[in-house]
């Protein structure tokens, strides 16, 4: 049941991401509301790169022995991931390795990478027989999560930055499409 819930969340979130980036002109894709704010392009890059980092962290954690004694430490963090991570009222600085740097040639490349990463995450969630609740790795600010919580985190993190994309698109100076 948990795996089904995670898959539904990941799939629904993928649709929201694709809707948020659909039909943007190059000017809209790259518009920054201010020098210290991210563009839609930067948000999308960050989402794609972070999901890849999460997947790699999960794969690394699966190589370590299970630590069922740590389950109590992360109890209740499912709700934290689902409520706190998407919440844009608290700002956070992304760790250096997942900050946007213009890694992708264009919008199509970022979107393709996001879709490939998400398909891999969903396939893993659907197919793995591992006990995801007995393996862990650390979030830089929120502490340890079990691997199931990291799957939720992938979608919740994306939710956060989809909301940020909406903020960019709501800026009064956001370029409007010509009709």
Structural commentary:
- Helices cover 59% and strands 4% of the residues.
- A hairpin with a 3-residue loop joins strand 1 and strand 2.
- The chain has a two-stranded antiparallel sheet.
- The chain starts with a helix and ends in a 9-residue tail after the last helix.
- The radius of gyration is 17 Å and the shape is elongated.
- With 179 residues, the protein is mainly alpha-helical.
Head-to-tail CA distance between termini: 47 Å
* SS element count, helices: 7
Percent helix: 55-70%
Q: What is the H-and-E element order? A: HHHHHHEEH
Shape, principal axes of CA atoms: elongated
Characteristics:
single chain; 179 residues; mainly alpha; two-stranded antiparallel sheet; 7 helices; 4% strand; elongated
Q: What is this structure, in a nutshell?
A:
The protein is mainly α. It contains 7 helices and 2 strands.
